[in-house]
Write a structure and sequence with these properties.
8% strand, 12 helices, two-stranded parallel sheet, alpha/beta, 360 residues
Length: 360
């Protein structure tokens, strides 16, 4: 019993030291704290869960991670850190957000948040099944397991406090549109664009409400980026000039509008909910159309390989200077671009997480 108590004290002390050493870039209102960041979703935020499951959707090999600490590939779908890491960093919580399936995960890591995301996942269960990755249902079960582990460390009351004050991030939808809807006949034969987006938003809404039922209150849901301007889609559908695909961008906007409305509805139904729509369409589109404004030189192709189609195992070599590129591969941004995006969306949404529509 005494040893268990000592171990608990050491875990909590480690948490306090790590919490106060890292300086936050995003300032919270007075007397407000966000103790942990908890992330669900796809490859935009996966920090290595796919390393430990049977799937070809992996990036735990060079040149991925070339700009990560020590140039180490960790399963992050970029040259360095990804948004899940950067959100935790911006809030002053910790430098990296560990994957829940990371064999090196420690008890103290649970106190400040973990990552359940899986590259290749989507809101639509078919999407995750096609890629043999962790579906959002799988990720929710992992979260329930996480809650049990947290309660074993700090008890039910403190766990409930952490759950209610933490920031939750949900990122999905791109694989549903590109891979499942436009890439297979499984949904297109039954749904038009609008009704498929309704289906996706319905899945997103159910997931958010299930999180709320488990104790989450501050939940950020990413919209879709301008999918028609991804290097891979420009190559496949953009003609000889590799132009952005207007129809794909329109699908993103339809989804985003429906998602925003559903989030407003959820907030209206649950008085303690602080669910926030996070716009990742507007700024990335500006980065792509006006790269020089943000310190980039190239925005129509990735740094990896030829930059036109390569992603994951197709990525064999890189450009000479990744800092010139908005995109790392044909689907994912570079750490430099992610940093700009994360800072702006957090700065814009942080008060909503804390105070809802009211002024903090």
């Amino acid at each position: 019993m005494a040893m268990h108590f000592l171990r608990l004290k050491l875990v909590v002390l480690s948490f306090l030291v790590r919490f106060y050493v890292l300086e936050a870039a995003i300032k919270l209102p007075k007397n407000i704290s966000i103790p942990a960041v908890i992330v669900f979703g796809d490859s935009v935020v996966d920090t290595g869960n796919n390393n430990n499951i049977e799937t070809i959707v992996k990036v735990n090999f060079p040149p991925y991670g070339k700009d990560f600490m020590g140039g180490k590939p960790t399963g992050r779908f970029s040259d360095g850190k990804v948004p899940s890491d950067l959100i935790a960093e911006e809030l002053g919580i910790k430098e990296l957000l560990p994957a829940y399936f990371d064999p090196a995960l420690q008890a103290e890591d649970l106190l400040t948040g973990v990552n359940f995301a899986s590259g290749g996942a989507g809101f639509d269960p078919i999407t995750s099944n096609l890629a043999s990755v962790l579906s959002l249902s799988d990720q929710l079960e992992m979260f329930k397991d996480y809650i049990k582990k947290l309660e074993a460390i700090i008890g039910h009351e403190k766990t409930s406090k952490i759950l209610s004050e933490s920031l939750y991030i949900l990122v999905a939808g791109s694989n549903d549109i590109i891979n499942t809807y436009f890439g297979t006949p499984f949904r297109k034969s039954t749904y038009d664009v609008s009704s498929y987006n309704d289906l996706l938003v319905g899945y997103a809404s159910t997931f958010v409400q299930e999180l709320y039922g488990l104790g989450a209150r501050r939940i950020g849901v990413f919209g879709l980026p301008p999918l028609g301007c991804l290097p891979s889609q420009r190559t496949l559908k953009g003609g000889a000039e590799r132009k952005c695909i207007d129809i794909y961008n329109e699908v993103s906007q339809i989804f985003n509008n429906k998602l925003y409305d559903e989030i407003e509805s959820i907030n209206g139904r649950y008085s303690m909910a602080r669910v926030t729509y996070m716009d990742i369409y507007t700024l990335p589109l500006d980065l792509i159309h006006n790269p020089h404004k943000y310190g980039f030189g190239i925005s129509n192709m990735g740094c990896c390989g030829t930059g036109t189609i390569e992603v994951a195992f197709l990525c064999k070599y890189t450009c000479p200077d990744v800092s010139e590129y908005v995109f790392w591969d044909s689907f994912h941004l570079t750490e430099k671009a992610y940093r700009i995006l994360v800072h702006q969306i957090l700065k814009k949404s942080i008060n909503t997480f804390i105070c809802g529509k009211s002024l903090c």
